[in-house]
Write a structure and sequence with these properties.
single chain, 1 helix, about 5% helix
């Protein structure tokens, strides 16, 4: 898989983080990314380093991995300038 996609939908969580790991980073952005490999192949993710003003449906993104609790690799997406299709 290429790790590239487009933002399908997004929102900003401002309060009510359900997991302690997210309580310290509230507010945070979450959304669905549609991967370029197949229509309607979605990954639920967040967008570290982005602001709500940066995000738009259809914008190109690529996967980055952040080390999470217990050394888990957490896929997240960052905006890219190039067209992923």
């Amino acid at each position: 898989m290429s790790g590239r996609g487009r933002i399908y939908s997004y929102t900003q969580t401002v309060t009510g983080a359900r997991h302690p790991a997210f309580a310290k980073v509230t507010p945070y952005l979450v959304g669905l990314v549609e991967l370029v490999e197949q229509d309607e192949l979605f990954l639920y993710t967040n967008f570290p380093g982005a602001t709500i003003e940066d995000l738009r449906v259809g914008k190109a993104v690529e996967v980055v991995f952040e080390k999470g609790p217990d050394d888990l690799a957490m896929p997240q997406f960052r905006l890219v300038a190039e067209d992923p299709s």
